[in-house]
Amino acid sequence: MTIAQVLSAIQLGLLYGILAVGLYIPFRILNIADMSVQGTFTMGMIIAAVFSYNRMPYLGIIVAILAGAIAGVVTGILHTKFNIPSILSGILTMTALYTVNLIIASGKANISLIGKDTLYTIADKLIGNEEATKTIVTLLIAILITVVISVFFHTRTGLTIRATGDNAAMVRHTSINTDNMKMIGLGLGNAMSALSGALISQYNLFADVNSGTGILVVALAAIIIGETLFKRNGVTLGLISTIVGSIIYRFIIAIALKFDVLPSYALNLISTIIVIIALMFPTIKETHDRKAKKRLHLELANKYLNGNNMSDQGIDDKSGEKNDKSGEKNE
Amino acid sequence: MNNNNLMLRIRRMTKVFFPGTSNEKIALNRLNLDLEKGEFVTILGANGSGKTTLFNAICGTLELDDGIVILDGSDITWEKEHKRALHISRIYQDPQMGTAPSLTIAENLALAYTRKASPSLFPLNKKDYRFFHEQLEMLDMDLELRMKTKIGHLSGGQRQAVSLVMEIISQPKLLLLDEHTAALDPQTSERILDVTNKFVRSAGVTTMMITHNVKDALTNGDRTIVFSNGEIVHDYRGAERDALDPNDLQKLYG
Predict the structure, then answer these.
(1) Is residue A267 part of a domain?
(2) Is residue A161 located within the same domain as residue A221?
(3) Co-location of A255 and A294 in the same domain
(4) Contacts of B99 in chain A (CB under 8 A)
(5) Contact call for A174 and B112, based on CB within 8 A
(6) Does B21 touch chain A (CB under 8 A)?
(7) Residue A295 within a domain
(8) Where are the domains of chain B?
(9) CATH code for the domain of A204
(10) What gap in Å lies between CA B9 and CA B174, rounded to an integer?
(11) Does the pTM of the predicted model rise above 0.90?
């Protein structure tokens, strides 16, 4: 891989990492599979593009974040106040947003920002190197987001949101309205997803109403890769591992495409296969460990069954115990 | 009796499950019950006699068909579950239910304390932390040394002990214990009961405790009521209660 390819993988990894964080909040912290993330990602893209097109790139990012938060709260209201299952609430919001996005884009399917000022082109004038700018700006934003969200989840409200995902009945029992906590979590998640979309449209100088297709699996891949490598442990580490997972995912994609294993339009298939493998991994490992343990114990059992004297010595002797312990260690 | 001395007043409390079907079950049958402030009542009764339904109705997890619930002079019959939880604490039989497993002991306590703590952005400030440490010390189970341990890593007895501290620090007006020692081994169960008594007496909180252990029911608290088919069939207190023989009461279970 060339340096340019490595940098590009890191930049995209960080940008989509913010999206993955947006899914991580409902998915892992609140235990809600939130499909509306797909719609808010595209909405962030379109809003930022429309504002950038009209020479207001910064305002575009802020409006995108707010709009994403509102959409997330709408999903939350459908789910909590009207008892619509969370998956369905997300799908409803996502589908409605498709039309909303077309309305924001004045009916056009895509917007080009070539020749327009964006966050990246403005920063580039200060730094003077395009690749360096893209890397530094994206990295700074990703770090800022991680720190802010991590601190938020250690506040009183943040703690309550985490507990809501863990044991909602218990949180209601401590006199806290879990409906509100779910809405805050969904709002925050979708705000992050919209921010990711907004940054990506300014980064690519292009926005398309269909860019959301398959994006959920991309975010899921980042979360799962992160968890497979770093285990599930706390919010702060969870956020960091999700973003690192997103960068690793980009490297896998870059390598898969480089060797022409599959054509570039096979991206969604590659993503899905990565997620499936990562999800199967713990089960495969467990089965493997169990088999290894079983083999050891079978040896022991055979020794006992085929032993010349049928006393318990065969079981109790030290070599048998050693085998038993090494078997347990494999767990 | 002076009404101001009453913490809980229940009138005509009625709940029918599956009405109009062949499975119709009257869980609570026009139940009346008064609890004085600071009273510790133990509740006996066979399965399905309405004890837990009574707790569910008081907590608001269940809507009543008829009747009213008055807590410390205010009508809470139609108040939402999380609103009345401000004044009512409950510990369940299942140690899993009262705590959030992936949060630490300190975080769980902070969550319970949220309703009474002085407002602050971060829940685990030094002052609260010291307070939690003191409370856990009173358990004498060395849990104060493990405040950063996730609740999920604790045993059932330890979790139940933490639940107890959580409910006590939230200073409820009414404490409901739903067979909270039933899932524990005899030794731990006794330990938790001791701690319960210590906490309840020092805080002077009005308490109801459901149990299937007749001896526990008579040796703890200062009043014992017996449920059958959604009604209170016996109400023992004072000398009458002291004179009861656990073996006689055991017969109520058939």
Answers:
(1) no
(2) yes
(3) no
(4) 167, 170
(5) yes
(6) no
(7) yes
(8) 96-171
(9) 1.10.3470
(10) 12
(11) no
pLDDT recorded at residue B2: 56
Q: Are A52 and A113 in contact (CB under 8 A)?
A: yes
What does the DSSP 8-state code read for residue A301?
A: H
- Do residues B219 and B42 touch, judged by C-beta distance below 8 A? no
How far is it, in rounded angstroms, from Cα A144 to Cα B138?
Answer: 42
Q: Which helix (H) or strand (E) holds B234?
A: strand B231-237
Q: Choose from A154, A170, A235 for mutation: most chain B CBs within 10 A.
A: A170
Whole-Å CA distances, B161 to A192, B101, B116, B172: 39, 14, 20, 17
Assigned domain for A266 exists = no
Distance CA B23, CA A21 (A): 49
Asked whether the ipTM of the predicted complex exceeds the cut of 0.95, the reply is no
Closest by CA position to A101, among listed A156, A162, A38, A52: A38
- Yes or no, beta carbons of B111 and A175 under 8 Å apart: no
Contacts A80 to B, Cβ<8 Å: none
CA distances from A99 to A40, A54, A210 (A): 12, 21, 11
Final residue belonging to a domain, choices A204, A226, A261 = A261
Closest CA to A249 of A16, A67, A43: A16
**Same-domain check for residues A214 and A315:** no
B107 touches chain A (CB under 8 A): yes
Question: B97 vs A170: CB contact, 8 Å cut-off?
Answer: yes
Residue B121: burial class (beta carbons within 10 Å; 0-12, 13-18, 19+): exposed
A276 in any annotated domain: no
Low-confidence ranges of chain B (pLDDT < 50): none
Number of compact structural domains in chain A: 2
For A61, the token pair is 């990012």
Helix, strand, or coil here: A118?
coil
Q: What is the mean pLDDT of chain A?
A: 88
**Alpha-carbon span B175 to B164, nearest angstrom:** 10
Residues A191 and A323 in one domain: no
Query: How far apart are the C-alpha atoms of A78 and A85, rounded to whole Å?
Result: 8
Exposure string of B88-115, with b = 16+ CB inside 10 Å and e = fewer, is bbbbbbebebbbbebbbbbbbbbbbbbb
pLDDT in tens, A265-296: 777 888 888 888 888 888 888 899 999 888 88
Q: For residue range B206-250, what is the model confidence (pLDDT) as tens digits?
A: 999 999 888 888 888 889 999 988 899 989 988 888 888 888 777
Q: Token pair 């899993």 is at which residue?
A: B96
Range of the domain at A245: 3-261
Asked if residues A27 and A242 have their Cβ atoms less than 8 Å apart, the reply is no
Residues A155, A38, single domain; the answer is yes
